[in-house]
Each structure stands twice: as C-alpha cells, then as structure tokens.
C-alpha cells in the first residue's frame, strides 16, 4: 500500500516547467492539486485499488509517441536515424515512480544486485563503490 507522503515527495521533485504528457498538463498543475489535502488521498486510493485488484485503468495505458530526427545526419532515409519518445500520462508517471522506488529498495535490501551494480541506484554512491573496491584489493 502506498502512502500520501510518497506522492507528495514524488511530485515535489519534478520540475514545474516540463510538460511531456498527452493531456498537456504540467507538474505545476499537479503540485497545486496536491496542495489540497483531499487530492493526495484520492490519488493514493486510486493507485492502491489498481494494484490490489490487478487492474490497470485504460487512462493509464494511453500514451503519445513522438519521433525526433537525430541531429547532424546527412540523410534521413532509414529508421535508425530517428529517436522515438513515448509520453505517458502524469498519473501513470507517478505510479511508475512509486513502483520503481519500491522495487529498487527491495532489490537492494534482499541483495538482488551484484555489489558492482551500484550505478544509478538509490542509496548507493561512488564513495561506497570506492570503499568496496578498496576492500576487495
């Protein structure tokens, strides 16, 4: 079960200026909604119900794909010269943040990561890697 504190924490770290969403909502709008005490509770209820009943709402499944040409290419005659970016709905992004944070925490806690796989993981710093390497030597 997810908590309201998690949603407030996840949303507060997002930049206000970004609008990469099919509905063209920015994080600023979501932050204003979350400022009301009822909104985080309702969002968390939706998330918890979806996870409990293993049902993903169709609204969360909708996305928009954008194709962007790679810069400095002389010709754009093959598909590998383009990048495809998928834009998800904001609530879907929030849910993904929750789940990925929980999965990463559990994977680190249970030792699923090899000690050398610390790049980009939460609670892992380059200092820890240096200490570990020094220990091995």
Describe the structure.
There is one protein chain. With 137 residues, the chain is mostly helical. The chain contains six helices and two strands; from the N terminus they run ααααββαα. The protein has one domain. Strands 1-2 form a two-stranded antiparallel sheet. α1 runs antiparallel to α2 and α1 packs across α3. The radius of gyration is 19 Å and the shape is globular. The model has no long low-confidence stretch (mean pLDDT 75).
Notable features of this structure?
single chain; two-stranded antiparallel sheet; 50% helix; mainly alpha; 137 residues
Largest sheet: 2 strands, antiparallel
Q: What is the number of E strands?
A: 2
Structural class: mainly alpha
First and last CA, distance: 42 Å
Estimate the strand proportion. 5-15%
Q: State Rg.
A: 19 Å
Parts with pLDDT < 50 across at least 5 consecutive residues: none
Helical content stands at 40-55%
Number of domains: 1
- Largest sheet, spatial ordering of strands: 1-2
Q: What is the element string, with H for helices and E for strands? A: HHHHEEHH
What assembly state would you assign to the polypeptide chains in this entry?
single chain
What sort of overall outline do the alpha carbons produce when their principal axes are compared? globular
Q: Count up the helices.
A: 6
Query: For the residues shown, what is the average pLDDT?
Result: 75
């Amino acid at each position: 079960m997810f908590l309201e504190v998690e949603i407030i924490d996840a949303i507060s770290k997002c930049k206000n200026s970004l609008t990469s969403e099919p509905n063209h909502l920015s994080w600023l709008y979501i932050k204003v909604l979350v400022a009301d005490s009822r909104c985080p509770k309702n969002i968390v209820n939706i998330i918890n119900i979806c996870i409990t009943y293993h049902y993903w709402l169709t609204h969360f499944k909708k996305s928009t794909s954008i194709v962007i040409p790679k810069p400095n290419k002389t010709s754009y005659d093959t598909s590998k010269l383009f990048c495809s970016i998928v834009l998800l709905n904001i609530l879907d992004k929030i849910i993904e943040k929750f789940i990925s944070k929980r999965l990463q925490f559990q994977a680190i806690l249970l030792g699923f990561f090899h000690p050398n796989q610390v790049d980009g993981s939460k609670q892992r710093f380059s200092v820890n890697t240096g200490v570990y390497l020094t220990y091995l030597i």
